[in-house]
Structure formats: structure tokens, C-alpha cells
Amino acid sequence: MNDASADLTKSARSEPGEVGLVEPRDFVSSAPFTFDNGLAIPGFTLRYETYGRLNATGDNAVLICHALSGDHHCAGIHALTDKKPGWWNNLIGPGKAVDTNKFFVLCANVIGGCQGSTGPSSIDPRTGQAYGITFPAVTIRDMVRTQKRWLDSLGVRSLYAVIGGSMGGMQVLQWSLEYPAFVQRALAMATTAREGAQAIAFNEVGRQAILQDPEWNHGYYPKGGGPRVGLAIARMMAHITYLSDASMDRKFGRKAVAAHHKPTPTAGTSTASAAVTVVAPNDASGLSMEGIDPVAPAATFDVRFEVESYLRYQGQSFINRFDANSYLYITRALDQFDLAATHGSLEQAFASVQAATLVVGFTSDWLFPPEQNRAIALALLRAGKRVSYAELATDLGHDSFLLESPQIYDLVRGFLN
Amino acid sequence: MSLHSHLKRTVDMQIIADWVEPGARVLDLGCGRGVLLEYLVHTKQVHAVGVDLDFDKISACVRRGLTAYQGDMMALMRALPENHFDRVICSRTLEELPDPGAIIEQALRIGRTVTVGFVNHGYWKNRTAAFFCGRKPRNSVYTTAWYESRPSNPATIADFEDFCALRELRIARSAHLHGDWKTTCRFAPNLFAGYALYDLTH
After folding, report:
1. How many contacts does A have with B, using Cβ atoms within 8 A?
2. Cα(A107)–Cα(A99) distance, rounded to whole angstroms?
3. Whole-prediction pTM
């Protein structure tokens, strides 16, 4: 694993095709911003990264929109010791599908987030205290409108393209109908114009896990504290919805974690050594969930399967980087997003769109299934807009849009060129 | 071979382009990699939409700057309102369809005109292949052996015109090409034409 991460770092640093070292920056807007619900904050910060250069005419900008748990760090590395590059590093870089030699690529952490942009964990300058749940409810449209202010400040005159998956795809749709003349191309993947009951249901279970954690304390908790167990459980469950039965089975199956492997009668032979499970990278079987007493029912309910270990790791690492209130706000924004209801119908919502649009669905995505992606494309077609729809056969579930897939690279490259 | 088939393709493409009104809204059923639509965009500035089942074909269309929809053509057409397109084209696709009558009916609902182009199975060489050899035709059109092919549903010019009469579809114009797919065939097309094109309206 150390070798692998060293290789990754090396390739991210020196080989052509990599963005390399990047530094996040902050856009600070000191003008008040009024949210969709009418409430205002005195100003806000968006943390962002850029790769490549803005051309003289200011029209080669490609905006990347991140998903629920994503952030502005979508390509390159922050330090040579980084184990992982940005979340869409496989797509973005010199000579890659989103070519930073040609395009000025930007990505900002959304408003309401917790990776440097203003959100519930930020200090309200009016009170000197964290906003907590006094932070106004955030919508996808608020995310887009705050980013427009940021892009204007950078001298971006139009977006050559706006690209995103999942919640990022919702922002893409919102961009193209909110600022029709500004957006030339819109690429939305694994997304929906309105979540179905199932997706809302999963988000609600996640929110309840947080809200029912006593540490949530009505949204008032110290930085680094709070409903860590609730948030971890929310993340564990949500993470399942990003995968698929087939991909989980391939990755984990019923493999047991090493500590609980029962030696077979032929222990010591090759059979036994072959049966010793290869533990997933970043193994967290040793981690107990904070706040959960590891002793109580002990052995019976401790980690048995690799999939459990994996999910605990996902939960554990999430609480170290994500704010529980942000999770509440952003999942609410996802659930509230409903272009059809907001505009009367999906066709009316898209009436203003000028961008050429590409929608991409994934066959195994059961969170935002292909039909919901197709519905976007069909509504755009009915509205007389330029739209393509492609559907990739994968078995990796919702997270397929992050897949290393030459077919996706070709499609994206073709759409941008 | 590829150049040959490209040339063959050119004449039927030219005929379709002659028939298409400039700036028309055109849907191509079974658009493949978008060769025909690209040609129509260049020659007639059409607003083109293609539909096909295959991801890589849609990707090729997108690369050509075309808009294309991956999915079932029937499902797509059912999702669109009446007369959404000026013209729906079904070129070299007909014989691949399980229910071509239903497709043409739908196409005539969402399009004012439907252009159908198909290989004439009644062409004499196709007949002799069956009659003298007792075999499925093998030539530059039917390139594969039966065991390498999907089941196809070939039709003859006579079959097609019977269908149009039965469904009371008006044949606004037609063109028949000889076995070379280049020169116009005016005499006994069901026997001597290798390829046929029709413009249908209600």
C-alpha cells in the first residue's frame, strides 16, 4: 500500500497528464447574499481550485460541480505526501478528457459545505459564533448563484462547459436554466431533476441518525465534536447507495476480516494461508466507532466481514472531514431540488436553456437510476433543445460516474471538442 | 471494401439530402455513428437528432457535434409529441426492426414526413441466391453467414408498397437504385433495384 501511494504521488507530481501540485484559494464576497428562502448572510467565502489558464477572451472555463460529500479538490495533489489526488483526477489534467492545456478548469466547495466555504460551521460575523442551524436553508440554486458571483470576480465571461455528477449534475442543470446565455455546454451525469421517494428516504435516515445523536444538541456543538456517531452511520448507509450489489459482492463478498478468521483443521497448510483474507486498503477493522462501547456485546457483533470493516472505515474517515450540520443542509438541498415542481413542468424549466446538453446515465445506478437521467434528456428534447443521452453499462452503481472508463473519457472529450 | 460501401452510401444519402427541407428538424432512427446526420447538417443545416442503442455509436455522434439519444427508438418516439419533427428517417434500419409497421406508424405521428430507405430483398441476385443455391444471400450487403447475424426481417419493394396501401400511407415520392446503389432503376424495381427509398406522409 505504501508502494502504491508512493507511485500515485510520483505520477501525480511528475508525469505528463497530471495537474500536479495545487493550492486551494478563497473567494470572499463581502456583499450580502440572500438565499432562496429569503434569509440573508452578510457575505460568504467559497474555497476553490483552478487548473489551466483562463484565455484572453475569458471563454475557455470549464466548471466542475461536486457531489454531496465532495469538495473543490477535484484534481492534482496538495502535497507530495498525499495518498490520493483530487476526486476527479482521472478525468481532469493535461491531455485528459477535460484537458487543462485547453481549458481553465474550476471547482468550488458549495455554499453550506464545510471544506472551506461558508456553511453552518462557519462563524456568523454578526454574533461571533458558528451559524449552526441558524444558517439559512441552502438550495441547489443558492449553490449556483454564489458560484456565479465567484466566476464573475475571476473574469470568466462564459462557461465553455459545466460538468458534474450526482448533486453536481443537479447544479449543472440549474446552471443552464439559471444563466442560459452564460453556459455553452452542460454535462450532467448520474443525476436527477427530482429525487424519487427512495433517495429522499435514504437521506432522511441519514439525517435522523445525526438528529437523534444526543451530541447533535440541536445543532450546537463545538468544532470537531458533535454527532460523530450519527454522522458516521449516515455516511455508512449512504455509501451503500453509491455502490451496487454486484460491485460489493465482487469487492467483499462474504470475506471475513483477518482477525476473525477461524483456522481450518488443516491450519498451517497452504489452504489456510490461501484463506487468509486480503484486507481492503485502508483497513479499519481495528477502528471502533467513536462513542460505541467496543466491549459491550463484544465478539458477536464486532467486525466480522470485510464489508463491515470497509463501511466503518468510510464512516470513520468521513467524520474527520465533514460537518454534521452541513450534511443535514446539503441532503435537504438535494431532496428539495425539483425542477418540475419549481417551474410547472420539466419542459417549462428547460424553456430558457441555450446550452448543448449531454446527460449520462449508468445502468446499475439505483440511487439516481437511468430512467431519471433519461427523463431529463427527453424533457429537453420535448422543449426543443440540443441534448444527447448516453447510458453506460456498468455494475458499479451510482459512483460509476467516477469510474476510470475510456468510454466515458471519449464521450466527454468528444462533447468538449 | 470500406470505400466501396462508403460510395454506396453516398448516393442514398444524397437522395435523402435532396428530399430534406433546409433547416428541417430531423430524427434519424438507428443513426449509427451519425454519418447521414452529419451530412444532412452540412448540406441542409438540419436540426438533427439521432437515436441508437449503442453507447459507442452515441459517443461517435457526440464527437461529430450531433445530438443523439441512446435507447429504444419506440420508447423515444412515444415520449415525443405529434409532429415534433419535420422528418423522421429510417434508413437501412427497417430490416432490423421486429415490428417495422408500428415503428413507421409512430414515426408518422411525431414526424410530418417519414423517409424509409431499405435493401430490396426482391432484387434478382437475392432471389437467385435463394432459388439456385438454396442459401441465404451473401454479398456486400448481406456480409455475414446466418450464424453470425441477428435475425433480420428483410422486405421487398412489393412487400413495402403493399404495406403502404394497406395502412393508407401516401407515398409522396420514391427512388429506386440498381444493384450498384448508384444509378436510378426505372424498370421493374422489385426485380432490378437493390435499394429503395420512400417518402411517406399520412
Report:
1. 57
2. 14
3. 0.90
